[in-house]
Amino acid sequence: MPYLIEPMRTKDIPEVIDIERESFSMTWPANSYKRELEENRMAHYVVLRYEAGAGEQPFPRKARDPRPFPLSLLPSLDRERSTQQDPPVIGYGGLWMMVDEAHVTSIAVRPEFRGKGMGQLVMLALFDVAVTRDARWMTLEVRVTNKGAQALYKKLGFRDAGIRPRYYTDNNEDAVIMWSEDLRSAGFRERYTKLKAELSRRFQWSVKP
Fold this sequence. Notes:
The protein contains five helices and eight strands, in the order βααβββαβαββαβ. It starts with a strand and ends with a strand. The protein has a single domain, classed as Gcn5-related N-acetyltransferase (GNAT) (Aminopeptidase). An eight-stranded mixed β-sheet has the order 6-7-5-4-3-2-1-8. It is an alpha+beta fold.
C-alpha cells in the first residue's frame, strides 16, 4: 500500500520540520518535537508516509546526517548513505490528551500532496488516536483567514465555538475555536464510517501501531 500511517519517531523530526516550514509562517522551535515525543505524556503524534509505486518517480528527500551538532557540520563521505530508508514523510499531525478532550496541536501535508485527501487521512488517524484513548471531544484552533482548513474541519463534523483574539503571534491574527461532535455519538460513528469508506475508494493505506 502506498500510504502508511504510524507513530512519529525522533528520526522523523527533520522531515516534519521541513513540512512545517513549508506550511506555516509561524513554526515551533527546532527542539519542540523532541520534547513532545520524549517528555510530554499527553502528546500523541503520527506521520503519513508515501512510497512510490513501480515506474513512479520517488518523492525527493534530503539526506540526513545522523551525527550530533557540531559534528554534523563536518564533511562526511557517508552523508548520502545516512538518508532514512523508510518511505518519506508527506504529512503529520498531533494532539494532546487532556482528560476526555483531544486538542489538535498541529497538522500539515506537503504542498505536493494537498487537495488529494491526505489532510483527511491524517485527521482520520487523529480520530483513531483520540477514540482509542477514550476522548469524548476533539478541539482545535485555525486562523480566521484559513477558509480551506475551516471547510475541511466542518466536513469532518467540527463546529465554530468562538474566537481567540490575536492568537497567532506572527501577525496577531484571531483564531477560530472549533469543536467536534461527541466522539461517542452515533452521528460521529456514521460520519467516521463514511469518511473511511470515501478515502478507501480513492487510495489504499495501512496503519502501523
